[in-house]
Specification:
The chain is α/β, with parallel strands linked by helices. The chain is 49% helix and 15% strand. Strands 5-4-3-2-1-8-9 form a 7-stranded mixed β-sheet, sandwiched between helices. The protein has a 6-stranded antiparallel β-sheet with strand order 11-10-13-14-15-16, covered by helices on one side. A 6-stranded mixed β-sheet has the order 17-23-24-12-25-26, sandwiched between helices.
Length: 919
């Protein structure tokens, strides 16, 4: 899987307690002589192989190897030998103080051997004992720690739980108590995390908040990397170490934590950066680029600096402009307009927004263009080339994020049904919708077929009447002499056969004569061509044959015509023909008598028989249609039950999500309930869309509201106000069936005008009746404030209580990136601390947080990994300083821009606030 860079603070694998051959006991053992000859390069490669990022050089009372290692590292940085990886050297020393206690001193990477020697001189350590642990300082442990701090370093009592450690030497004495309470003490080294700390320490542990770090204390190559501490810093330096150690668990992680890989972001889903080009007030000329941390990024700036605009740019590119409360939607729509002098729009025809995202181990970029309003997806390939994957239309589903501003948070408490989108995003709603679509298509197809069958069955009565009429005629025919009819039909068939042959013979004679005329050949001339006697005789013979053949064909054609005429005359003169004429006279008399009856048109008997047979075939088909109709009715009922069951499955999925949320977020803050089929406003609108009647027409039948805008009448009210869930679903089906089956004589309690309207729909657009039958009201989300063991309607809470409640919910629902714009508005300082700061610190290891804020506590106390300063200069949104609090300019921006920023910094970093203010 690819590894990507991290913006802002990240975690560094640090070992701050290590020895080199400068320590007299380095390599202690049978191979000490060999190990003492180890080179600086070999020493560094051992730590590089252990993947140590930061190494403290803490020889016993010596800094002799510090410059050697730093010089060798510079060479290695250039040569890049095998096994090389970047590493940061923190100069330091392990001092044996008066009383035999060991104390580590860690300094900034810029310090040198000379600085360590100066420190040892200031604490009175004998030069002759450099590298040994036997000598001791003249100063006490108090003085040594003060000297380290005064020199700009960090003092760390070494291996407090082992030999020569603070607790080992002094236990729980008052000396230990007073020492631990020193303001500038930030950390202690604890080798065994399960060590039973003295009561003196445990009583003050929480207030002291000392970072309990651990190092390998390696004296042998095989000990390298056996113990270490992860430290959160943007870039390793003494300032960053001080801040991290002061932050305690926010800034350090011990190596014993199982399977910890704090920088493992390959499988994380987060926004890496946003780039705005050619915006009306952003990215004009040079693009506006904002990098985000995988954990927490905080955007700060004065009023009008463009902080919220960054959030709106993200909304646009990530397709998060829909599904928001109406008031918020209006603001977003204004933002998306083309900018103009005095206008509110922030876009231009050439505006482009790129959002770089890491997801599923891939680095992707969404490129949105205002001119085309499309989004093109790109991916960074192994070769470092961005490959265009093509346009996407479902950005919000492929790249889900949660974006809320303070207004939106409050609006969610007034219109909690917007939470349904969040609830439905927690399961595969697309799959559920696809299944519903398939079920509904089958339902509509079944109804269409049912209407076709029903329409055909309605013709049965007419067809049976035709059958009876034809049958009556046949009976009349048969009663008046079937033998005559048969004889007449037989004779007419024979007569027709004769006439057909005669006529065809005459036509053939004519055709032959015409053919002969068309193919007449002129005689060949033998006199004019000067032919010899043999050829001339051949031509004469040929001409005679042609002439004889043509004459014969003419004779045959004439003979055929004569034969046909003779046969025709014979037919007319025959006794048989005279007898057929008598039969016809009798037949005509029969027909005349039939026409005198009421049997209909004059149709011959054979035709009537054919008609009867055809009608009988159709009547047999009606039997099958009736059977099909019964089957279709069964299918309709079965399909309806399946569709309703599918709708109820959606409610089950939603409740499961809500139950999961309830188990995750603070149950003492808010309760969420699902009122199935309870969204009366949406239900009325969707129903009116089907019947094509907006406004208040038929309101007494559909829905009426009381003075508090709560349902008070109509069939929707009857459904949603039922306490029993099963009854509610039963009423849904009952009310729809009553509505469709009601008539003027059997109104079923429904208004006459409404009945007539439904009847008209049946006649003109019966498909809408199918939709009515499938119509299911939407659910309603009910929020309750939980206070002192009681649940109250959220509408009764203050703005701060309501915002806090909904925010506590949103912080817990999933792990997709969460973007918040000034969530602290309406919240008091206690809520900011307990709800936002503390929750952010717990949340961000699993979920990216991007927050716009004016509150310095969110930036400072939540240990934001990245702080971005924004300003509006020369008509453009621009970035100022950027990074973690370890940067002087970032701390200055927090102090200058954010009201109370300096106080927040001094309060949080009270033990090092003086040192910070000096920088």
């Amino acid at each position: 899987m690819k590894s990507f860079s991290i913006s802002g603070s990240k975690w560094w694998k640090c070992d701050f307690h290590n020895h080199t051959p400068a320590s007299s006991d380095y390599g202690k053992g049978v191979n000490q002589a060999v190990l003492k000859t180890s080179t600086p390069r070999k020493w560094l490669l051992d730590y590089m192989a252990a993947e140590i990022d930061c190494v403290g050089i803490t020889d016993h009372n010596s800094g002799d190897w510090i410059d050697k290692l730093k010089a060798e590292l510079l060479i290695m940085d250039v040569e890049q030998p095998e096994g090389y990886r970047p590493i940061k050297i923190f100069p330091g020393v392990e001092i044996t103080v008066n009383g035999g206690i060991h104390v580590l001193a860690i300094f900034d990477p810029s310090k040198s051997t000379q600085d360590i020697s100066a420190l040892l001189g200031s604490v009175g350590y004998p030069i002759s004992e450099a590298g040994n642990s036997e000598g001791t300082t003249e100063k006490s442990i108090y003085g040594v720690i003060d000297s380290i701090i005064a020199a700009g370093g960090i003092a760390i009592p070494a291996h407090v739980d082992k030999a020569c450690g603070l607790f080992d030497k002094l236990g729980g004495s008052n000396t230990v108590r007073n020492l631990l309470l020193k303001e500038n003490l930030l950390a202690i080294e604890v080798v065994n995390k399960d060590y039973a700390m003295p009561d003196t320490y445990m009583q003050h542990r929480e207030r002291l908040n000392l970072a309990e770090i651990v190092g390998s204390d390696s004296h042998l190559p095989e000990q390298v990397g056996t113990a270490y501490t992860w430290v959160k810093m943007e870039e390793p330096c003494i300032e960053a170490l001080k801040l991290a150690f002061h932050d305690g668990f926010d800034g350090i992680i011990r190596h014993e934590v199982p399977n910890v890989k704090p920088n493992k972001i390959d499988d994380r889903y987060f926004i890496r950066k946003v780039i705005v080009r050619n915006g009306y007030k952003a990215g004009n000329g040079n693009p506006l680029v904002i990098d985000f941390s995988p954990w927490q990024s905080t955007l700060i700036g004065g009023r009008g600096s463009g902080k919220s605009s960054i959030i709106n740019f993200l909304r646009i590119a990530l397709d998060k402009c829909e599904g928001v409360p109406a008031k918020i939607k209006a603001d977003i729509d204004n933002f998306k307009r083309e900018g103009s002098r005095g206008g509110v729009g922030m876009l231009k025809p050439a505006t482009e927004i790129d959002v770089e995202i890491q997801k599923d181990g891939r680095l992707l970029t969404l490129k949105w263009k205002y001119q085309t309003n499309d989004c093109i997806l790109h991916e960074l390939k192994d070769e470092g080339i961005w490959e265009e994957l093509g346009p996407i239309t479902n950005t919000s589903k492929l790249f889900p994020v949660r974006i809320f501003n303070q207004k939106e948070l409050y609006e969610l408490t007034e219109s909690p049904n917007h939470l349904l989108e969040l609830i439905d995003s927690q399961f595969n709603k697309h799959e559920w919708l696809q299944t519903l679509s398939d079920l509904e298509k089958s339902w509509f197809a079944t109804w269409r077929r049912y209407r076709e069958v029903k329409s055909q069955l309605e013709k049965e009565t007419e067809l049976r009447e035709s059958y009876n009429s034809v049958n009556a005629k046949i009976k009349v025919y048969e009663s008046f002499g079937n033998e005559l009819l048969t004889k007449y039909k037989s004779e007419q068939d024979v007569y027709k056969e004769f006439k057909d042959h005669i006529n065809k013979s005459k036509q053939l004679s004519n055709d032959l004569r015409a053919c002969i005329e068309a193919i007449l050949l002129p005689s060949l001339s033998s006199q004019e061509w000067g032919l010899d006697e043999i050829l001339a005789n051949g031509v004469n013979t040929y001409n005679q044959v042609v002439e004889d053949s043509i004459n014969n064909f003419k004779i045959y054609a004439e003979a055929l015509k004569v034969a046909a005429v003779n046969l025709d005359n014979s037919l007319e003169d025959s006794v048989w023909y005279q007898n057929t004429q008598k039969t016809k006279i009798d037949y005509d008399a029969l027909i005349e008598s039939l026409n005198a009856t009421q049997t209909g048109n004059n149709i011959d008997y054979p035709t009537l028989l054919n008609q009867k047979k055809a009608i009988e075939t159709n009547l047999d088909r009606f039997t099958k249609l009736k059977e099909e109709k019964e089957t279709l009715v069964g299918s309709i009922n079965s399909q309806y039950d399946t569709i309703i069951l599918h709708h109820r499955q959606l409610r089950t999925l939603r409740k499961e999500v809500i139950n999961t949320w309830s188990a995750q977020f603070d149950n003492e803050t808010i309760a969420v309930y699902l009122h199935e089929l309870g969204d009366f406003s949406n239900s009325e609108q969707t129903f009116r869309d089907i019947i094509r009647r907006s406004g208040e027409e038929f309101k007494n039948d559909i829905l009426t509201l009381n003075e508090n805008d709560h349902p008070s009448g109509g069939f929707i009210n009857d459904i949603i106000n039922s306490d029993e869930m099963e009854v509610r679903w039963q009423l849904l089906r009952q009310k729809k069936n009553e509505m469709i089956s009601a008539t003027e004589t059997d109104s079923k309690g429904i208004g006459l005008r409404f009945i007539k309207h439904i009847q008209k729909i049946k006649e003109t657009t019966p498909e809408d009746i199918d939709k009515i039958l499938l119509w299911v009201p939407e659910d309603r989300i009910v929020l309750k404030l939980k206070r002192q063991g009681r649940e109250e309607d959220i509408e009764g809470g203050s703005a701060g209580q309501r915002t806090a409640a909904i925010l506590s919910l949103l912080l817990s629902i999933d792990n997709v990136p969460l973007i918040l714009d000034q969530p602290e508005d309406d919240l008091d300082s206690r809520m900011v601390t307990t709800l936002i700061v503390e929750r952010f610190k717990k949340l961000k290891p699993h979920r990216q947080i991007v927050v716009v804020t004016h509150n310095p506590n969110i930036a400072v106390n939540a240990s934001s990994e990245t702080i971005v300063e924004l300003a509006f200069n020369s008509g453009q949104i621009r970035t100022g300083c950027y990074g973690a609090l370890q940067k002087i300019d970032v701390r200055s921006a927090v102090c200058e821009i954010m009201e109370g920023g300096k106080t927040a910094l001094e309060t949080r970093y009270y033990r090092i606030s003086k040192a910070l203010s000096n920088n």
